[in-house]
Design goal:
Elements lengths: L1 E6 L13 H18 L4 H6 L2 E12 L8 E11 L3 E10 L2 E14 L4 E2 L32 E7 L13 H10 L3 H6 L2 E8 L8 E10 L2 E8 L2 E10 L2
Helix pairs in contact: 1-3
């Protein structure tokens, strides 16, 4: 179990003062990275073995969104590990009350083959919490064979890249929210966000942001390159 406090600054928030959804995802992942470093499975240890962690799926459930200048506590723990993938959970607390819950699936990635791999590091000291879930369900596979209406085109830029030389997964989420009507994002709350990260994107890649409206309160967004889906995000908005 690992905890980290965050004081939210204005760069992490929308104009209404609430944390931006991509910033929320980033805070969760940075906290996970610090925990992984602490227990010997961080970026540097993994890189020595020619491996890294990649985020495969994530689900975020919100009861309230943190706001500018609030100090939140992010709690994270590993529920299980199977040799090549792990389920990591999160809670965000404000004044000792849980306001956000999240669950994520991470896969061991071979930096040479660019494929999933068995973890090369020893896991005997790893502590699991197999009975402690965070969300109602584990992150699921999102249906990709849907009719998507094109919202906008986008070209991957330098600012989208991270140290793995590909577009950072937080950016996929940001692109999709940027393609939405601003009033929808600012005046309502996404009570559940489910994401599937399927393929890498690189500098200069041309992509399309698409939308499938499942019902009034549920939407599925995609990022496509040459008709191939690289990212899916399903949102259930609060009524």
């Amino acid at each position: 179990m690992f905890e980290k406090q965050w004081l939210l600054n204005f760069t992490q928030c929308y104009s209404n003062g609430r944390i931006a959804y991509h910033a929320l995802s980033n805070i969760l992942q940075v906290t996970a990275g610090e925990h992984a470093e602490q227990i010997g499975f961080g970026y540097r240890d993994m890189a020595k073995a020619g491996q890294s962690w990649v985020l495969s799926r994530m689900v975020i459930e919100t009861e309230r969104l943190p706001r500018h200048t609030e100090t939140i506590t992010v709690r994270t723990w590993i529920q299980y590990f199977t040799g090549s993938r792990t389920l990591r959970n999160f809670e965000i607390l404000l004044n000792n009350k849980v306001i956000v819950r999240a669950s994520s699936v991470w896969v061991v990635f071979n930096l040479l083959t660019r494929r999933a791999d068995l973890l090369a590091l020893n896991t005997d000291h790893m502590v699991y919490f197999p009975e402690r879930s965070a969300t109602r369900n584990e992150p699921k596979k999102i249906e990709r064979n849907l009719p998507f209406a094109s919202l906008e085109d986008y070209q991957i830029r330098l600012s989208d890249l991270d140290i793995a030389h590909h577009a950072n997964n937080v950016k996929y989420m940001e692109w999709c929210f940027n393609a939405m009507p601003a009033e929808e994002v600012l005046q309502t709350r996404a009570k559940r966000i489910e994401m599937n990260f399927l393929r890498e994107l690189h500098l200069g890649d041309q992509v399309k942001i698409g939308l499938h409206q499942d019902r009034q309160s549920e939407q599925t967004y995609c990022v496509q390159k040459q008709e191939q889906v690289h990212y899916l995000m399903q949102i259930d908005w609060a009524e």
